[in-house]
Amino acid sequence: MSTNSLMLLNQYEKGYRYNSDTLLLYDFIASFHPKGYLLDVGCGCGILGLLLKRDFPALLVSLLDIQEQNCTLSFDNAKQNAISLEEIICGDFLTTIFHKKFDLIVSNPPFYHKGVVKSENLSLSISRHSSYLPFDQFAHKVTKTLSNKGYFYFCYDAKQIDHVMKALLEHKLNVEDLCFVYPKSTKEASLVLVRARKNSKSLCKVHPPLFIYDHEVFSPRVQAIFNHSHTQSHTCPQS
Fold it and tell me: Which residues is 29 bridged to in the sheet?
């Protein structure tokens, strides 16, 4: 992999902070050489959309987040990295009216299920719990917002794959690519990376598994992904 320019990212100390899930999703999306109009849903500090725009300058990237403080953070991060965006939308994806269709929708959505105790920090709860963006409703809105044959890239809790697949199929989003992520080779899958396409009839390709750790250190593949993302995080005051 070639060396990318350093991505400087401000994050709030007590807000949601990106983790390896987003970087693995970024690498997964990048492997398909995305192009066209892209919408990053639940953008947080903007990391996913900004990394993809950095690597693929021809992409026309819009960011969306329901939390105003995250939209402000994304704007600041885009500015300090000299990255040009189409727009930053502050609103609920499920109720936002879009004036164009997108070729790609990407997201690291909240997927903590109802059995997980919610944080007292409302910002964290919104970013983590699926009750704030139920997947059935999410998939329905994605279908309406994508262009015909458009792509939906996301990551989700691997243990909820049955629910995810059912919702996607019900909303005419056919899964073309799956990659399961495991903490170690001896552990169960914890995450799944998904590429679905609207109105597609292609068969699904299940990619080789991705292991985070090799013994007690990052696996060579994961370390290469982190190196390629080339991000540096800074804590900034809460707005």
Answer: none
pLDDT tens by residue, the chain, 239 residues: 446 899 999 998 777 778 899 999 999 999 999 999 999 999 999 999 999 999 999 999 999 999 999 999 999 999 999 999 999 999 999 999 999 999 999 999 985 555 544 445 555 444 444 556 799 999 999 999 999 999 999 999 999 999 999 999 999 999 999 999 999 999 999 999 999 999 999 999 999 999 999 999 999 999 999 999 999 998 887 65
Q: Where are the domains of the chain?
A: 15-236
pTM of the predicted protein model: 0.90
Phi, psi of 152 (to 5 degrees): -120, 115
Give the DSSP H or E segment for 226. Answer: helix 220-229
**CATH code of the domain occupying 15-236:** 3.40.50.150
Residue labelled with tokens 């900034």: 236
